[in-house]
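Task 17 of the worksheet. Students: predict the tertiary structure of the chain below and write it out as structure tokens. Keep your answer in the requested format; marks are given for formatting as well as content.
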Amino acid sequence: MVNLKLFPHHTGVWEGTYTRINPEGQQTAKWRSKLTIKMLSTDHYHQINEYFWEDGHYELHDFGVCAFNENGELIFDNPRILGKAWETNDSVVLTWSYKDRPGSNLYEMIDFIGTEKKHRIRTWKWSFNDEFEGLTMIDERQTATQSEIPASFYENLASRRFTGESRSNK
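Model answer:
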């Protein structure tokens, strides 16, 4: 297995905000987020994203247990997305597409601010059918470490998954 230096620092609970911006630079959407990330072994990763809108709308997306390949790339292939993530010198980079939006492509970079690795910033660049759709800016702070995630969080997870049309991937 490839020695991972960045992915282990991204585990735990991360809370923050997502802000969508269109190609003209105007904000089109904003919502709060809570990501719960756990490394199950040196080669398996589990991420659950929860999204909260001011009008009370809520979504929980479970990306399932994903594996790292022999090159250290984290492969996502679940009902929601198809893509991969990998470490660079100081950043984690992701590319993916939404399965319910053929022609969608997203390019993400995740970076830590500060030496404690408790604050991270992320940007998504969106394209659809080879046209630029805008950006998503994400600002998050770690609110719990992996060891502080209560086992009860994972109980009845399947029944809490969002199954409707998502606001977060449009």
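Marker's comment: The CA atoms of residues 31 and 53 lie 5 Å apart. Strands lie at 12-21, 27-41, 44-52, 58-67, 74-77, 81-87, 92-98, 104-113, 119-128, 131-144.
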